[in-house]
Design brief:
With about 350 residues, this protein is α/β, with parallel strands linked by helices. Helix content is about 35%, strand content about 15%. The two termini are about 35 Å apart.
Length: about 350
């Protein structure tokens, strides 16, 4: 059976050569006579896997020495609680709400302290990024929080907010490793890996060391303390071992492809093909303000729900999977992460042109 073009928002498409390599090593990882799935996380072979994965990620993102890299479980959603539990020393945090996930993170933070919603784009169904150059940052805020790329709505911060000296915490789940990033601009940068890096079940947290302390909110479970994981090199308990192994392979694939600058150029090229078509199409149109468009997630509509449903159905029959938009937005969404080949986008646009001719 041939592989389809998978436009899923996550779990999402992975590089084919990574999957093939993992398949070859499935029964016998490098002469150990067993699969990584069966391997002790305390073994020498696994220790090499996790250490190499961290070293490659550090190289790719140019992560400074005063930042810890943690491979954790619980997905990005668990971080919604873990962040305030560990960082809310004054019990205050500022949130910029630009989509569903930032909203959920904000609501979770309200359980642990005073969370202030200092900017939002909810007034226009999160279709833009608000101006964050001069926000009312709370004087006693412990951090300022953003979701950098909004998977559901297809928006992306092109310029980070002015946090007026407060640490910036960013959920980068759906733009992780899609372009170069200056880690020093963040206190915490984290993301679930199931969109751009690996299989579901791993969340990577890159956190500045001065933010990792014993001083956490009373009642914070041991497993939800950054210090516990940092002190134990992500091996306090059994980590999501196989998931981390695949992430490590993806890091090597990105390095082989030329690193994050090469990824950015490749992603811009793919997104341009789709956005250019949407901008001149008579049937389809994008839903996001042009200057805030994501390179990763492209939502679009025809303006007619029945026609949208017909498009999704016919696209599926033609080998384009998971194009239905998120239930809160409707329409369609093409997620074109790092591993989506350029021909996938070209073929999708060809199909959209044909559909337009037949349905206008």
């Amino acid at each position: 059976m041939s592989r389809i073009y998978n436009f899923s928002a996550g779990p999402a498409v992975l590089p084919e050569e990574v999957l093939k390599e993992a398949a070859e090593e499935m029964l016998d990882y490098r002469g150990t006579g067993m699969s990584v799935m069966e391997m002790s996380h305390r073994s020498k072979a696994y220790d090499t896997i996790i250490k190499e994965a961290e070293a490659d990620l550090r190289e790719l993102m140019n992560i400074p020495d005063n930042y810890k890299v943690l491979f954790l479980q619980g997905g990005a959603s668990q971080q919604f609680a873990m962040i305030p539990m560990n960082l809310m020393k004054n019990g205050v945090a500022d949130y910029i709400v630009t989509g569903q996930w930032a909203k959920k993170a904000y609501q979770e933070a309200c359980l642990y302290g005073k969370a202030n919603k200092i900017a939002s784009s909810e007034d226009q169904t999160f279709s833009y990024i608000p101006d964050c150059s001069d926000l009312p940052i709370s004087e006693d805020a412990d951090y300022v929080y953003i979701c950098e790329n909004n998977t559901i709505y297809g928006t992306k911060f092109k310029k980070l907010p002015n946090t007026k000296g407060k640490p910036l915490v960013a959920d980068v789940s759906s733009c992780f490793l899609s372009e170069p990033v200056d880690v020093t601009q963040y206190g915490v940068i984290y993301g679930g890996v199931q969109k751009n890096i690996g299989p579901a079940g791993v969340v990577i947290v890159i956190i500045r060391e001065d933010l990792i302390t014993e001083d956490v909110l009373p009642g914070t479970p041991t497993m939800l303390r950054y210090k516990i994981h940092a002190d134990n090199d992500s091996l306090y308990n059994t980590p999501p071992a196989y998931g981390i192994y695949i992430c490590g392979k993806v890091f090597k694939w990105i390095k082989k492809m030329g690193g994050l600058q090469a990824m950015k150029e490749r992603n811009e090229k793919k997104a341009k093909i789709l956005y250019d078509f949407l901008d001149e199409s008579k049937l389809f149109h994008g839903t996001v303000r042009k200057e805030d468009r994501s390179l990763m997630n492209v939502p679009f509509v025809t303006g007619n729900e029945e026609l949208d449903a017909k498009f999704v159905k016919e696209a599926k029959a033609a080998g384009f999977e998971n194009l239905k938009g998120h239930r809160s937005v409707g329409g369609m969404r093409a997620s074109i992460y790092n591993a989506m080949p350029i021909e996938g986008v070209e073929k999708l646009v060809e199909f959209m042109k044909k559909f337009e001719e037949e349905n206008l």
